[in-house]
Amino acid sequence: MPTHNRRKFLQLAAALGATLAWGCSLVRPSASGWRERRDLYPQGVASGDPDHHSALLWTRRPYDDGRERATLLVEVAEDPAFTRVIATASAPVLAQADWTCRVLVGDLPPAGEYWYRFVDEEGNGSRIGRTLTAPSPDDPRPARFAFVSCQTICEGAQNAYRRMIFEDERAAPDERLGFVLHLGDFVYEVVQYPEQVKNGHRYDRRIRFPIRFPQGKAVAKNRFMAPASLQDYRVLYHAYLQDPEIQDARARWPFVAIWDNHEFSWLAWQSIQEFPGDEGWIPAQTLKVAANQAWFEYQPARVLPPGSKLDAFDAPKVVDTPIKDFDDDGLGTEANNLAAINSLIAYRALRWGRHIDLIVTDQRSFRSRDPGNHDEIAPLFEGDTLGWVPEELVRQLDGGRDYANGKPPAKLSFGAKSVANYRAKEAAQTMLGAKQKAWFLERLRGATATWKIWGSSLGTLDWRVDPQHLPAALGKWPDAGYGLMATSDWGGTYHERAEIFDAVRDAGITGFAIVAGDRHSFWAGYAAKALPPAAFEPVGVAFVTGSLSSPGMAESNEHNLKPDNPLRPLYITNPNGGAPQHTVNLLLQHGVRSALEYASSGDLAKAHAASNPDLAPHLTFVDMGGHGYTTVRVDAHAMTTDFVCIPRPLERKPGAEGGPLRYRMRHEVTLWQPGERPQLRQTILEGDAGLSV
């Protein structure tokens, strides 16, 4: 490779906090004397963000003998026996970086499979990892990846990773996954100690206690403990990366990771913390920086911390200061807030062959305040038992002064109740913030791959319900229109979502697909800015993957909606006293009448016959009780998305396959032309998807 390219790689490696290892034409056997000592590398190895000529490698080798630094040797080979070593480098590990090590290996051939390992000065070696480089940008071969989210080691087992590894190892080489896209909640920063858990269980789950923070703070009226320092965040990653399935997955594939909320704080936005039951905002600039630093140290990602230096995160000096002033996009202008959220910019793009332009966004660091999370609106819902929010009210809250082409109502109403419209003079809600949104739209319009895939931690499909069809026995809906079951993600961010989808339409973009997580459930459908009675105009397809292990709504309903609750049939039923079935899937996709019909008769055909066709034309599949992962295959003609659903992961399953499957559901869409609507086709490949279709 020319000298100027090598110099460019050296500069990139420095910006990534990495050592540069250079591939070479001289292939030779290993001479390192490596002997495996996994106990000395307790968090294993990993790789991330590959491109078509390089990959970023990672490990952690801690020392407790008082030293501040040590040196590791990294070896990269074309074979797992390391008889064909093509790159080596000496890399420092520093106490100030929690003994983590990052190495950028450059000048590798595209579409390659490589093995790597680390060795200390005494020959003690890490486990062996496997990584891949991306195909060349013009490579026409089909491309494959998996996307995942939401893993908890305190309440579940990561059996989905074991299944993923099992299937990938047995697949033909050209059918294997190229990378894993992790869409957030890699760790959960709120944990419980034994004294905070009654009977040692939540729902049917046995609570485990692998984490105790060196400092920590009690939150949510002492229901949970949360990090209070950088060391606390590091302890989270120490524990999670000792999980055997997480560690094995990171050793098998390169990961592309983006954070969601729990990498920082449960209900946080920008650098502000909030906790249920606790009063007020908590300025947390120091913790936002600490969370960013720990993420940088433990995720091998091509992110460029401003002012970063080789091998360590250069954390800005910030102080926790109340944030009182916000600009027109809802961004807190307080200097420490800006320094904290800009200490690590994680949104980025990746090209994988001819067929994938992947654009990954950050939904937490730059978002404006949730417009529905205001005390002023509480009087509207006093005495309400349904828990749904009128769709039009959410549009008013989201749109602010931009609602109805700049004509917001003076009051916000629900039935006979009303409050002053506190959003009437404020700008529309933003998830991305002005700067990131401009970047995102520019990358989207400029994407040239067959499939333009948006990786979002938060789902975009509407959570719509039709309470106007409730029978009198369940109460009267004091509104004329539809309701929303949830409002805190893109499903209730109408204005900015419409801006994005209109940009796709106006630019004539085809092959637009959204992959998302966070909902702890599987969803499939169409990307459309509005639903009937407004014009329904899909511009792409959208998917949400089930959680790897975190509990979700369906599981909560089983325990929290008691048999005598009149609303229970809308969410769950136990035919003939048998296993629970989740009528909430019918509620979201087909409506109130469909859910109640199935709860009454147990006849799915009758339930489908009672479907409300105007409720959810955007949905083709919903499983609110699904756990597992999703795989994607794309080529010049079609995108094939498979939901791989496993039983509820209460305990680790023995065996190489990670336990049985519940189902494997395939969603296929052929590439459409500008102006056409995409058309999803569904096939159940294995198992039974129950009430999800």
Automatic annotation (TrEMBL):
Official protein name in the record: Phosphodiesterase
Signal sequence bounds: 1-23
InterPro entries cross-referenced by the UniProt entry: Metallo-depent_PP-like, PhoD-like_MPP, PhoD-like_sf, PhoD_N, Phospholipid_Metab_Enz, TAT_signal
Domain of life: Bacteria
Phospholipase D N-terminal domain segment(s): 43-133
Keyword Amino-acid biosynthesis on entry: no
Domain PhoD-like phosphatase metallophosphatase: 145-642
Keywords of this entry: Signal
